[in-house]
Automatic annotation (TrEMBL):
Matches recorded under InterPro entries: Glutathione-S-Trfase_C-like, Glutathione-S-Trfase_C_sf, Glutathione_S-Trfase, Glutathione_S-Trfase_N, GST_omega, GST_Omega/HSP26, Thioredoxin-like_sf
Highest taxon in the source lineage: Eukaryota
Protein name per UniProt: GST N-terminal domain-containing protein
Keyword rRNA-binding in record: no
A Gene Ontology term for the protein's cellular component: cytoplasm
A GO molecular function held by the record: glutathione dehydrogenase (ascorbate) activity
Annotated ranges, domain GST C-terminal: 117-253
Length: 277
């Protein structure tokens, strides 16, 4: 039976709709996507930045169709299907972080999203893991926190804990930026960007996020300055604009999280104090 979360707007809108329409033709690489999903947006950004041909297939992951579960037993988007020359069929891959690494390795002749230096590559992986294992869980603890039952103090604490993860990541941004590693847009930017684009949800539902404005950061002025420069640069990219739908259609989805009613894996993992799926 479909959970209430399944009741989402059925397709991408705005700039993302146009991009989806340009990617309907059959291609060896298929992206099974949900237009609203930040994990999907990671992979979608990478495909666009790397200029890899792909076919976009919209899936509602809250209606777990058997044909989709056959590709990904976890029933999550993003899932991709890649050509299998040995059998002339295709084979699936899932988990956004794994797919991003796969695209780097499988398409070496396309624009890279990881530097060549092994040390820098390893450093990217540390901070990518930090996004998935620290920033996203902290974001969801804040988003799903219910002051009416658990008290307003806890909300302030959840906000501060989330802000401190963003600050820790931002400290690592290249001193002059604008991107994480400097002038090149790379995987650390891709991995965090979809959540950075959705921070308006806190203004909408949680009384604001509280990232200091220019000149208001006190002893953290420099680090928040790097954050602001990073966010503006990432938001300004064509790939970011074209993989983002109209805000009004994200609203009901995030309202369910903000009211702690969502029943996705991630929402339940957050509620039960487990890690990110
Ligand atoms: N760890 C996964 C998470 C993917 C994920 O949670 N996707 C959500 C949509 S944003 C989903 O498919 N949810 C369906 C569900 O929770 O049942 C990844 O990195 O790809």
């Amino acid at each position: 039976m479909a959970i209430p979360d399944a009741d989402i707007y059925p397709e991408a809108t705005g700039a993302a709709k146009a991009l989806v329409e340009r990617h309907q033709a059959e291609q060896p690489l298929k992206l099974y996507a949900g237009w609203f999903c930040p994990f999907v947006q990671r992979v979608w950004l990478a495909l666009e930045e790397k200029q890899i041909p792909y076919q976009y297939i919209e899936v509602n992951p809250y209606h777990k169709q058997p044909s989709f579960l056959a590709l990904n037993p976890r029933g999550l988007v993003p899932t991709i299907a890649v050509p299998d020359p040995s059998t002339n069929t295709s084979k699936p891959l899932y988990e956004s972080s794994v797919i991003l690494e796969y695209l780097e390795e499988a398409y070496p002749d396309h624009p890279p999203l990881l530097p060549t230096d092994p040390y820098l590559r390893a450093r990217c992986r540390i901070w990518n893991d930090f996004v998935t294992s620290r920033i996203i869980p902290a974001l969801h603890r804040f988003l799903q926190y219910q002051p009416s039952t658990r008290g307003i103090e806890g909300l302030h604490q959840a906000r501060q804990e989330f802000l401190s993860t963003l600050k820790e990541w931002s400290r690592e941004i290249h001193p002059t930026g604008p991107y994480f590693l400097g002038e090149e847009f790379t995987l650390p930017d891709v991995v965090l960007a979809p959540w950075a684009f959705r921070l308006w949800v806190f203004d909408e539902y949680k009384g604001g996020l509280g990232i200091p404005g220019p000149g208001e950061g006190g002893e953290d002025e420099e680090v928040w300055g790097k954050w602001r420069k990073w966010l503006a640069a990432v938001q300004g990219r064509r790939s970011s604009k074209e993989t983002t739908s109209e805000t009004e259609h994200y609203l009901p989805i995030y309202k369910r999280y903000a009211d702690d009613l969502a029943e996705s894996w991630l929402a339940r993992a957050t509620r039960e104090g487990r890690g990110v799926p």
